[in-house]
Structure formats: C-alpha cells, structure tokens
Amino acid sequence: MNVPDHAHRPDPGAALAALRAGHARFRSGEPPAPAAGAGPLAAVLGCAEPQPEPGVLFGGSELFTVRTAGLSIGPAVLGSLEYAVAQLRLPLVVVLGHRCCRLTPGSGDGRIRTVVAALRHRSPLLDEAVRSGRSAIHGMTWDDTRQLVRSVRRVEPPPVRRPARSRPPGRRVAGIS
Ligand SMILES: [Zn+2]
C-alpha cells in the first residue's frame, strides 16, 4: 500500500535536508532519483509562472504541490495546505517563489516572508502545527538566471510590544558624598 508511514515520517529538519540533497542532484545534472513511493515528503506552494516543476528542482522528490500566480493565497490554497499538514501529516511546507517575479507586487525574500507570515496568520491550523514543531514553513526562492534554489533567511519577529515601563530607579551609590 502507498499509505505514508506516519510513524516514520521525517521531522521538518530531515525533510528540508532531503529537499536540499535533491536540489544538489538537480544542480549536478544527475538524473532525478526515482520516487520512493512512500508518499510526498513535503508540501510546496510555488509560483505558477514558468519554472521547472518543484519535483524536478528537488531532484525527483515526491511533493504535494500547489501553484498560484505570484504565490497568491486564498481559501482554496489554505485548505489544500491544511490538508497536506493535517491529513497527510507532512512535516514541511515550502513557499517557493521567484527571486525576480513578474507577477507579484514585490519579489524575492521580502515577498516570501510576507507569504509565510500570511499562511500562519490566516490559518490557525498551520500556525498551531508550526508552534508545536510538527511542521515547519520554510521560504525559498528560485533564481532563473543561476538555476538555483536558496533559502530565505528567517527574520526574527518584532519583539512583543510591552507597556512602557518606568525607568528602574537609579541605584544610589553608597559611600560617595
Ligand atoms: Zn513568480
């Protein structure tokens, strides 16, 4: 049976490592590894603008792929990714955009970070999966010119705004008169 073996599904880090290894195969020109038939390794939200299929970019990895113009997200996309995480129990969602995209209001890392944040903001299910560590959402860009997929560096969320505290009282220095 081709039912994914949930007991042995990789954790988010292992899934990402497998994708990186797959992309290294793609870069080296090796033929894609035949899919293991164990079910998809990760979900990918990719831009619909022409680019190699994510499965090709990641060296023949079996993926659950959703593609939209400029990574736009709506209920259908959120529902598909929630299915991948909750039902297929995939440990990783990759947001794969273009380094330079003709379709979006903005390209590259900033656009990817916005989409990653929006997925968590708009889907409590995805947000909870990330918070619990069961799944991760990882941003990547595809560079057409260099034929290269790179990870988008994560930016720490802004610190929680706290009510302004009164300054700590200045410590009196003893012994000075
Ligand atoms: Zn694009």
Automatic annotation (TrEMBL):
Cofactor: Zn(2+)
SUPFAM superfamilies according to UniProt: beta-carbonic anhydrase, cab
UniProt keyword Metal-binding, yes or no: yes
Residues bound to Zn(2+): C47, H98, C101
Region (Disordered): 154-177
Co-factor binding details: Binds 1 zinc ion per subunit.
Entry keyword set: Metal-binding, Zinc
GO MF term list: carbonate dehydratase activity; zinc ion binding
Pfam families per the UniProt record, alphabetical: Pro_CA (PF00484)
Job description of the protein: Catalyzes the reversible hydration of carbon dioxide to form bicarbonate.
Family affiliation: Belongs to the beta-class carbonic anhydrase family.
Protein name in the entry: Carbonic anhydrase
Organism: Micromonospora mirobrigensis
Lineage: Bacteria, Bacillati, Actinomycetota, Actinomycetes, Micromonosporales
